[in-house]
Specification:
This protein is α+β, with helices and mostly antiparallel strands. The chain is built from 15 helices and 7 strands. The protein binds iron/sulfur cluster (2 copies) and FE2/S2 (inorganic) cluster.
Length: 317
């Protein structure tokens, strides 16, 4: 099979900007993208820089953007990509500085993982295999997804929030943080300490729930779900006192009281503790009021509010 590859190349000493270069290659139709790139390197482009190690979807080092989304090159079939996209466009990961060609600097990614201190803080007194065997299996089910992470960085590259805010801790680090908050061996005060750090700016409330991290993860870690669970844990621990935390509690309380969202009251309940933010939205509120678009903040509960409240009661709110 003859293929046309477009590869984003960048040499730090020669190029101002990365640029797409075209290559044509005869390959066996059962090759993976990684095998194809290795063949290209051996036959034509010895200088092409890429990372790989295990070639078996284990080490996570060969992640790159293939036809616009993050994939492990060693488990992506060239034939399937060609059938789907009629092309093979290969780029380095996003949201990380490019060192050369397809190799990016993963130091910020690893630094953020380090920030969540991914180990148990509580002293484990009983560590013999027999004691560990007594550890309830269902407790592992809580976080087994996260333990499947191979630190490939695909989620961080796809993350919308990281794209606009490089300080955001990112999906992999937050998923790892959840793993230790969910671990029953971690003491209550340590969990709370972790949660307190995670509700700070750049933490759990900065995720915009785009779901991209879930879509691209090759190991079904579902980082966004872990972040949602962390948010629930933070609210349960009484750490919802931020605009984003108050957004959720205000939403729930308003719907419970009135049976529907009150768009006039919601921002007030969110921002009443931050007068400077209220002042920022005031000009917009004034414009809306002048044009008759500002919803009234006082509503009667809807007909059938009792049924709505019953739903809340059943769900434990
Ligand atoms: S869901 Fe959140 S963490 Fe995941 S990619 Fe989107 S913004 Fe990033
Ligand atoms: S969560 Fe998934 S995508 Fe993110 S680093 Fe781990 S394995 Fe890769
Ligand atoms: S080379 Fe290890 S995951 Fe692809």
């Amino acid at each position: 099979m003859r293929i046309h590859l477009k590869i984003k190349r960048y040499h730090p000493e020669w190029d101002r900007e990365p640029q797409l270069k075209d290559y044509y290659l005869d390959i066996r139709s059962d090759l993976t993208v990684l095998e194809t790139l290795i063949q290209l390197k051996e036959e034509e482009e010895g200088g092409l820089a890429l990372r790989y190690s295990c070639r078996s979807a284990i080490c996570g080092s060969c992640t790159m953007r293939i036809n616009g989304s993050e994939k492990l090159a060693c488990q992506t079939s060239v034939r399937e990509e060609y059938e789907r996209f009629e092309a093979l466009k290969i780029e380095p990961l996003s949201n990380a500085p490019v060192i050369k060609d397809l190799v990016v600097d993963q130091a910020p990614f690893w630094g953020k993982l380090g920030e969540v201190s991914p180990w148990l803080h509580s002293e484990i007194l009983k560590e013999t295999p027999a004691d560990q065997a007594g550890f309830p299996k269902e407790a592992f089910n809580e976080f087994h997804n996260v333990d499947a992470c191979i630190m490939c960085g695909a989620c961080a590259s796809a993350c919308n929030s990281l794209e606009v805010s490089s300080g955001f801790m990112g999906p992999a680090a937050l998923a790892k943080a959840y793993r230790f908050v969910a671990d029953p061996r971690e003491a209550g005060q340590e969990k709370k300490k972790r949660l307190r750090a995670l509700v700070e700016p750049n933490g759990i409330w900065d995720c915009v729930r785009c779901n991209f991290c879930v879509e691209v993860c090759p190991k079904d870690v579902k980082p966004m779900e872990a972040i949602i669970r962390l948010r629930r844990e933070a609210l349960k621990a009484g750490l919802g006192d931020s605009p984003a935390g108050r957004h959720i509690t205000a939403f729930v309380n308003i719907v419970k009281k009135e049976g529907r969202l009150n768009e006039g009251l919601q921002p007030l309940k969110m921002l009443w503790k931050s007068p400077e933010k209220l002042l920022q939205v005031f000009p917009l509120a004034l414009k809306m009021w002048v044009r008759g678009k500002l919803p009234f903040i006082w509503h009667w509960p809807i007909k059938g509010i009792r049924s709505i409240r019953k739903i809340f009661k059943v769900r434990g709110f």
